[in-house]
Specification:
With 260 residues, the protein is α/β, with parallel strands linked by helices. The protein is 36% helix and 21% strand. Strand 8, helix 6 and strand 9 form a beta-alpha-beta unit.
Length: 260
């Protein structure tokens, strides 16, 4: 099913990035025209991404390098959501982080200090800093009492050459070794959706979420009662959809279909 007129009538858009706007450093078909359509039609929009590697400013600069100009205020990441959640749970605490600068900066900004001896939390995001040494330290710290937090539950992420392991896959060995379940803050956690709606100052009835993942984007929209649009430009294939107990309201080949 797809009703482009209905999708276009929405006043606010929550949009995933990887697999929707780009694959790695390759802009997807129609992404520029879609963002221009959002601006020209005065739509409120927020890029709500489970990626924790980059800050909103870095994401804005990345899109600019790809030819799409979007101000940093239009981005909200799982790193920011994770930092905000931990600040509400344990203000001024300490963390051991396996992740990239976007996650570390978000935690610093939320008042956390880095601690590889006796932290309150072990926080895992995506990144190249994942190693056997880091995994072993994380296991020791959790065994010693630290709590395990994952920025998002995505098992894989799309890049130019296919897919790569994402946060959920990197957290799994730590969960298995410690017999501990991580708490994931990113989509489909309702925290992310509530943050998104607050940022947009929008009602859920006026909002649509666009994503490429059934297990994060679409289920997040279904559980938040927000109109869902699945695009087939990322992880999910058309043959994957029937095996899920929930379904998207609309299925598009990509965001290039949305502008008139």
């Amino acid at each position: 099913m797809k009703d482009l007129t209905y999708i276009r009538s929405k006043t606010a858009f929550i949009i995933d990035m990887d697999g929707v706007i780009y694959h790695g450093n390759r802009l997807l078909k129609g992404a520029l025209e879609f963002v221009e359509w959002l601006s020209h039609n005065h739509k409120a929009f927020l890029f709500l991404t489970n990626s924790s590697e980059r800050s909103p400013l870095e994401l804005s600069q990345k899109l600019a390098r790809l030819g799409v100009i979007v101000d940093p205020e239009h981005f909200y990441t799982s790193a920011l959501a994770t930092a905000g959640f931990l600040a509400s749970q344990h203000p001024g605490g300490s963390v051991y982080v396996i992740g990239e600068p976007g996650l570390i900066q978000a935690l610093y900004d939320a008042g956390f200090t880095m601690n590889n001896v006796n932290p309150n939390y072990v926080v895992v995001g995506e990144g190249r800093g994942y190693s056997l040494e880091a995994l072993e330290r994380a296991v020791r710290l959790i065994t010693g009492g630290a709590r395990l937090i994952g920025t998002n539950p995505d098992l894989t992420g799309p890049v130019e050459g296919g897919i790569v392991p994402a946060c959920g896959s990197l957290v799994a060995p730590i969960e298995l070794a410690t017999n501990t379940k991580a708490y994931f803050v990113g989509k489909p956690n309702p925290l992310m959706m509530r943050h998104g709606l607050r940022r947009l100052t929008s009602r859920r009835e006026d909002t649509v979420i666009i994503g490429d993942r059934m297990d994060t984007d679409i289920v997040a929209g279904v559980e938040a009662e927000i109109e869902t649009v699945l695009v087939l430009s990322g992880v999910t294939k058309i043959t994957d959809i029937p095996r899920f107990p929930y379904q998207p309201r609309h299925i598009l080949e990509g965001v290039f279909e949305i502008p008139e």
